Amino acid sequence: MATTTLTLSGYYVVRVYVNGEFAAESETGYVHPAETSMAHSFVYDVEDAVIYNEVVEAPAGVPVSMKIQTVDRFGNLRTTGCDDGWVMKATGPSNFDGSVSDNGDGTYTVSYRADIAGPYKYTITRDGENICQWGGYTCAAGTQSGTKACTLGYAAGEDCAFCLTVFEGTSLNTTSGLYATVPDASEIALDGSFAATAWVHKTAGDATNVRQYVFSKQSPSSGKGVWLAMEATEDAGTYVIEAAVYTGAKKGWRHARATVAIALDAWSLVGMSYSGTELSILASPSGGALEIVESTKYDSEEFGRRNSQPLRVGAGLMGRVDDFRLYDGIPSEVTSLESNAFCPAKVPSLVLHLRLNEGNGYATKDAVGDNDAVIGLVYGSTTEGGKVKLTCPAGHVITDVLFASFGVTDGAGGAYVVDGCSSGNSMEVVTASCMGKATCELKASKATFGKDPCPGTGKSLTISAACGGGMSAWGETPQAAPTLVGVLDVTKSIEPTCTGLPPYMQAMLDDGSCSTAFEPEVNQEVSFGVLRVDGCGFPDLTARDSFVSSVVYPEEMVATADDANTCLPRSVLAEADAVQVTWGGDSAEYCGVFNNAFVFTYAPHKVGTDAKVHIELGGATVMEKALNVKPLSASPKSTSACATSAESGVMTVISVELIDTHGNAIDVPTAKDSASIDIKAFGNTGSFVVPTLLSTSGGVFTYGMTYPTDGDYTLTVRVAGEFAEGCGNAMVQVSAPEMHSLLHASSVDAEEPRSRHVSVEYDGDFYLFGGVTDSEYLSSTIKYSTGVVEAVSEAYAYATPVVVAGAEISAMTAVEVVVDTASLIASGKMRPDCADMAFVDDGAVMPFWIDPLPGCGSSNTTAWVGVSKAGTYHMVHGSATATSLQADPSSFMTFYDSFERDGVFQDGSLWKLLDSECRPTTFTAAAGAFTTSGVVSTSGTKSLMADTFTADGGSLVAKVGLGTSYVLRAHLFDSGCDGAHWISPTVNACSALTMDKAALDRQIGCGIYTGSMKDVYTKMYPWLGTSVKRSSGWHSVEFSSDGTTVVTRIDGVEVDARGVEGSLDEIFLHSGLFTGNEEAPGYWDAIYAVPRVVGLSVNLVVEETKPVHYVVGAGWSEVVTPTSPPARASAAGCEVNGKWIVSGGERNGFFFSDVWQLDFKKGSWSHAPTFGVGPSGRHSHAIAEKDGVLYLSAGKGADGEVLKDFWSLDLKTMTWTDHSATVPKSMMPRFGHHSAVVGNALYVYGGFVSFLPSQELWEFNFASMQWRLIAPNQLTVKSGLGGDAPMYADKDYVPLFDNTMGRIALLANGFASDADRTGAYSSDVDVVGSSCSMSAVLATNSERIGLRCYDDDGSVATAYGSKLAVLKGAKGDYVVYVVASEPLKGLPMSTAY
């Protein structure tokens, strides 16, 4: 037996040789190719009407095809089909899928249409495997050797993707005489409403008075049908456009004509629409927008008459035509026809779209259907015996016979089909007779075709052919109509995105959300993408345009030197950050389908919201996107400020400003930033103290630190695990505590001894009425206003006397107080921001303002305080959380301006330009030279800017009207550059000097004048240098006059003193050396003037600083009312709905039973008459209220009688009701007790019973109207940590008041080493189950508490257990709080929890 493996398919004969001699031979057999191998198969182009290699290129909107040749693994071309699962997918401007059909011979036709021009990437797969090879025509052989004879190309990338270029193509050159013909079909019948548009391109030299059809569907002989035509006039560029519809009715035709200017050598859009009642002509005159240029309306609705003629585009048209569109129906807006004309839109009403993109061949495809057109179509049909004559347009010959049949056919106008018999040699005969001829004629006879294909049957000869060969229908130079495909639309394109980019670009982005692209951290690289979009909304994949991008920042004023080496501040853009632009088209792997993708990568170097990503294209700005550049996380570069000395028990302030590693302030800290702050203070004993966070403002954290004992403490402030700058590792000396006395306002002597008064709280104030002193009964009502304090840290801890003496003050005057705030801050007696500095007079806050120069933290901080008389006042300070109480300086200063407005002369400005009689030529000014600016400032956010850079500057004056003694001060910003900026107190008018100048009679002024001295500040007149050297930044200029001498100071340094008399009438301010110069702008801020009281001294007596407790607004005052209750003592009362109800009391043996009420809002007392029999006069009784009813119990009456009665007063009806019958015999008469309502019960405790202090607690249940004794226990409390708290002895129990309302009230039973005191403690704690009649609380030193609930028979019904938080003390346990607990079932009676 012999075996062999055959790898070449084909026919074989097996011959057998024995010893070299032929022995036998088999029959011929065929060896079939093996199964398809995708690795060996390839795609190739085929010759068709579209003369392009459709494997790699195709015109847009044209259906094209190519073939797959399947090959087995041995290289044999397969000759059979049946492979399925083929998929063609293309991505590009508009993704599409192709279709694959089986040809049954081992090849498969791949058909596709790419509607949008641009680059594409496509794959052809079968069962997940890709074809990776392609070839040209020569690869379409039928044998294995055919593959060896051609050159195969290989697809790009790992996915074996083919690159396809789809182009817009050209237009139809109808000057050639050739035009497009679409065979008749129902979609293009034009027998209803329709609209049509086409682009036409006309040139000079057009033939006149000749009808040139844009399109037509009419009979060649009668002309009946539908058409749109143009006719050139004698005026070049002027055309008569005519539209016609033949309806077949009586009148037959409907016409419209319009004369329109058409741009020559340019594309124009023309069209028509017909609704049945209105015929319109559309055009874009002179290349403008599409509009209705003529419209004719009709009374009756008639539509075009149906005909079988083909639709012709461009017949007889001189020029070019492109992009013909036919719509079924009329759109509501003509503009939609225009917008569609620029884009390959697929609106449902578009029934025919000839894009005319092919550029060669005789066929042009319908982009929306199957109504393809033929270029240069000639056709004819005749019955047997007749003749068909075909004639091509001049200069053309027949180049293709498209259809020929002698037999039975159907169809019309180039859409013929065999409908029965047909001579088999029809195509051969017609081709031989017509090809290459301008005209050919054939007779429909048996003699012409050699035989009768179907004897006895009527036959016809039908021919369709295409003409060409002369002037190309596609022209020498392709030229297409306008389109927005591939034309960048910057309004749609430059939008940031972080999705849809190629994988290698997508990896450059964060998480696909652009979450950090526009909120980046400083100096950290971030990216975002841009996908360019064209005017039709498709990806713009045209050749790369160069984007120019950078991160830009606002302009900054910087000092630079010009050519003359003169220092000038110039407004320049801050240094921009480069942006790296990555283009998606740089990778050939993607076939250009990501040519529209760009990634912009940058690392902004400045924190803030002023930066923008700036992108330019072709010199034009196409995008500016604002950035919010954030600092990095908090770092040890953060700064901290603290006091290095403190008083134990008094809170001091520690501030931390978070700063990142690059030195940027963190204005919006994250939770991580906040958590990075670690502050501790370690005492000598090793214990440590942590501060309390008081406030946050941006990235500044303010903490309050209270040192518990005196001694040395090591304060550590760490940020991100390391010591912060400033107080990162500081030693704090803590002194022993001092007694802090109250400092408050008092309009009444409320501190005289008094007793037996009645009191109440309302709206944060404490009210007192009546009582007795050692000599009289009182009827006054006084209150203590506690002030608005949410925490003790808001109170001021220190007060320093301010003594104003030496002269009389007749009106509010601003006086200067110089404070060494640096020392106060260091000693912990003032906050680092000085916000806790205030000045008070008898507890009331005085108007004051802290001058920003030199400002807080200086040894000579200046505060201006408004005083009305000489005397002693106090500067209070040392509050950890108080807010600044500074007043508006203009409220107590004669003149103040900080320029917090838009423009110098707005909002009642105090300033005006210098009057003409005092304006020398060198001082020429315009109002625009002075404005307000936010570039620099000291007080507020704005300052006065004098523009001497782009303008000449000039002079301003402001009326003041002060006397001869005054202080004038101004803040001047020195840029360090050349210029003139000075100020002067003006008393008299200007006087002329030589050289066309003028001067003030005062002849005093101070500031910058580099025309005289460049390096020092100058004074005048004449201009002389001072001892103070210039430096960049803000400086203080001051003039102080005592009436005879004016002293000039710069930054507090005296630079001049001269005798000058006169009142301060005006302030004179000047900027500018000479006109026409580019000089440094000047800035002024906080200009103020106050009277100076000669002889007045203002002294801050630091050595008399004392510890206080001062709260703004706190103090005693008398409530003065028109009437008031008579003087009395031991009355009782309570507050009800904004009124204080007071009843009873006694005076000198007289016992009151009346009722009075104080309306808190009105501030008035009134007597309240009552009805019915009421309680007798008494004192030392108790009153409580529930639901608008007062309950009065017991007290002491006439003749010393101790009472036990019980009454109620309905406050609505003012009627008394006696409930004394409810009082049990065991409830003894009493006085001096107190009562309160809790939930649904009234509780009465203590008082004198039988003239001995009572320990009884009674409960009155409002529902049952019954009393019961709750507790006879004596209460002992222990004063210790956490304030007063109950102290429990082991296994002693504490009765439970009432738990029906979810409240636990505890009475402590235990022991203490100090004097016994009584007290009750309550907590809002939910108690599980409280339906039993009695319950008790057990407490032990085991830190457990049990609640026992007893039934009526004394058995334990339910028990509850809870963990207590307990502070351990030297003498016992101090209970802090009780937590709600779960039921503990079946606990024995003797168990303690």
UniProtKB/TrEMBL annotation:
It comes from the Eukaryota. InterPro entries: Filamin/ABP280_repeat-like (IPR017868), Filamin/ABP280_rpt (IPR001298), Ig-like_fold (IPR013783), Ig_E-set (IPR014756), Kelch-typ_b-propeller (IPR015915), Kelch_1 (IPR006652), Lectin_gal-bd_dom (IPR000922), Lectin_gal-bd_sf (IPR043159). Signal peptide: none annotated. Filamin repeats lie at residues 41-131. Residues 382-468 form the SUEL-type lectin domain. Gene3D superfamilies: 2.60.120.200, 2.60.120.740, Immunoglobulins (2.60.40.10), Kelch-type beta propeller (2.120.10.80). Keywords: Kelch repeat, Repeat. One of its GO terms (molecular function) is carbohydrate binding. This is SUEL-type lectin domain-containing protein. It comes from Pycnococcus provasolii.
